[in-house]
Design brief:
The complex is a heterodimer of chains A (483) and B (95). Chain A has 483 residues and is an alpha/beta fold. Chain A is built from 15 helices and eleven strands. Chain A is 38% helix and 12% strand. Classes of the chains: A alpha/beta (483), B mainly alpha (95).
């Protein structure tokens, strides 16, 4: 039953042809069987899941069920979960049992979703391949020698592997969209400020945003709607009301103008990705959409700008990890400063330390204007590029990733090689716009290819409608890996 | 924008990170690779462009100065490495 749509599962729960306990039990069984092969989960909470499932069944019996009541769900281990280990993929938090719930976790708990566990991720959300986790790499269920993408690779792999129908993620430079693409599922990052960051362990505060994974756009709409809303505990959480993101799904695509940035279709995209993307665009034209060329002239500067701003903000955010109030403390040290240095150097992995060093440098005296302020100016230009392009079209489309999933270990020796893969996704975070990736076909070696859709601020419903209509006419999203 | 070993050691000190001697060269090489990437920013003239720190035009929201939280010290300190009498213990700072 976990393989059905959220709508069908909810109907079956209401009709009592299945119970939440049965769903949770099925999910836990699939995790037990599959996790040794793909390492999607860091923590599985059997007891918590069954308790939540029993409560969900009681809710259903009392006629109080909502659309997510009783649905098995996984949370990326970046979200604090009260009483449950929250590692953020790091040795620094390897023993951190959170004393509180993230806002997103509370919302989904109150909605009756049944958390089965916490998923693996790149350490402190810094990575695009899920290889930097202290808990070891997650493997792509389509080919276990390949990366699932990152940093939300565990959540993407768990949904692709049909262990759970829905999972949460976070996206700072592409960390929901890119693993969705590499794992053949749907993932959405909403407009910045839409999903509360309270309790979502901070990487880069002006870029981080919680996001949703599911097999389909319709299910993503359900999950994202439940994650959205003002939270006074997050000072960047917007005070506005939101319509349900699924309200517009049925709208036909006739007249939809899809902008294709010429910079995204130049070199850089592998030929197998290009074939799948072009085929998907042809499908969109069949559905009544038109395509128009647009330009994002400063697109190529998004990567250097991102790799100044994100590390700068990370260096500030990660200064809280000092071995005093929580997290790893070194066993031996000479004085307070030595305790800080040893605790941090032992607790953080190499990529995290590199980004902290880059961030510290670009914020330091004498370099702040040349690097950090310069990057913020480029950020403005990039946002302006999107605004201009979105005057000529309703949504922007292009590849989510330049390649299909690559081999574990293939890019991990050169950080810059890894960073260059983020070329289509980081600009969206810099501008704060919503972005979605949905399955568009398969490339080399039968590996999934995703198409990215980018919209104007607060146009999530339109992005989800666009992807949903594509999914009514195609079946890429229904393919499941065998592993 | 190529850093020297001394400069990297200085940044590590600021960031309260230890650079293991054996790894310092390798770390330096990787960092210089990243700085090379960052240097590409200089290709565009940004004179007169306003820096953008945030996607939304927002001011810091204020609230009424009234206590709303309960004291959860015991729960929050349960995850601390060392505490005593409600205090966090660290190596002596003042002689």
């Amino acid at each position: 039953m976990i393989d059905s749509s959220l709508k069908d599962i909810a109907a079956a729960l209401r009709a009592k042809t299945v119970s939440a306990v049965e769903l949770a039990t099925e999910s836990l069984a699939r995790i037990e069987a599959g996790n040794p092969k793909i390492n999607a989960f860091v923590t599985v909470d059997h007891d918590g899941a069954l308790a939540a499932a029993r409560a969900a069944d009681a809710s259903i019996a009392a006629g109080k069920a909502g659309p997510l009541t009783g649905i098995p769900l996984a949370h990326k281990d970046v979200f604090c979960t009260e009483g449950v280990l929250t590692t953020c993929g790091s040795k620094m938090l390897a023993n951190f049992v959170s004393p509180y719930d993230a806002h997103v976790v509370s919302l989904l708990k109150n909605a009756g979703a049944v958390m089965v566990g916490k998923t693996n991720m790149d350490e402190f959300a810094m990575g695009s391949s899920n290889e930097s986790s202290h808990s070891g790499p997650t493997r792509n269920p389509w080919n276990t020698a390949k990366v699932p993408g990152g940093s939300s690779g565990g959540s993407a792999a768990a949904v692709a592997a049909r262990m759970v129908p829905i999972a949460t993620g976070s996206d700072t430079g592409g960390s929901v969209r890119q693993p969705a693409s590499l794992c053949g599922i749907t993932g959405i990052k909403p407009t910045y400020g839409t999903v509360s960051r309270f309790g979502m362990i901070a990487y880069a505060s002006s870029l981080d945003q919680g996001g949703a994974f599911a097999r389909t756009a319709a299910d993503c709409a359900q999950l994202l709607s439940a994650m959205t809303g003002h939270d006074p505990r997050d000072s960047t959480s917007l005070e506005r009301s939101y319509d349900h993101y699924g309200a517009d799904l049925a709208r036909p695509l006739t007249g939809l103008r899809i902008g294709l940035p010429k910079e995204f279709f130049a070199e850089g995209m592998e030929s197998d990705v290009r074939l799948a993307v072009e085929a998907a665009l042809a499908e969109y034209r069949k559905l009544g959409a038109t395509t128009v060329e647009v330009s994002l002239p400063n697109a190529r500067l998004a990567i250097p700008a991102y790799y100044v701003i994100a590390p700068a903000e990370a260096s500030s955010n990660l200064s809280r990890f000092d071995g005093v109030r929580y997290g790893h403390r070194a066993a031996e040290y000479t004085d307070l400063n030595d305790m800080y240095c040893k605790s941090r150097s032992q607790g953080f992995g190499a990529e995290v330390q590199r980004r902290i060093l880059v961030g510290t440098y670009v914020l330091s005296h004498g370099y702040y204007d040349a690097y950090y302020i310069k990057a913020q100016k480029l950020r403005r230009l990039i946002a302006q590029d999107f605004a201009a392009a979105l005057e000529k079209c309703d949504v922007i489309a292009g590849p989510t990733n330049p390649t299909v999933a690559y081999g574990i270990g293939e890019k991990s020796s050169d950080p810059v090689q890894m960073y260059l893969g983020d070329i289509y996704t980081v600009a969206v975070n810099l501008a704060g716009l919503p972005g979605l990736s949905h399955p568009a076909g398969f490339g080399k070696d039968g590996l999934p290819v995703g198409l990215q859709l980018i919209g104007n601020y607060f146009t999530e419903a339109r992005l989800l409608n666009t992807a949903h209509q594509f999914q009514q006419a195609t079946d890429w999203h229904s393919r499941a890996p065998v592993f | 924008m190529s850093l020297s070993l001394d400069e990297v050691r200085h940044i590590a000190k600021l960031a309260r990170l230890e650079l293991a001697d054996g790894e310092a060269e390798a770390t330096l090489a990787k960092l210089n690779g990243i700085f090379g990437l960052i240097e590409e920013m200089q290709a565009v003239d940004t004179d007169g462009v306003e820096p953008m720190s945030h996607p939304q035009e927002l001011a810091q929201r204020l609230r009424v100065d009234v206590v709303g939280e309960t004291n959860r010290r015991a729960a929050y300190q349960a995850v601390a490495p060392q505490t005593e009498a409600g205090l966090y213990l660290v190596p002596k700072v003042i002689e």
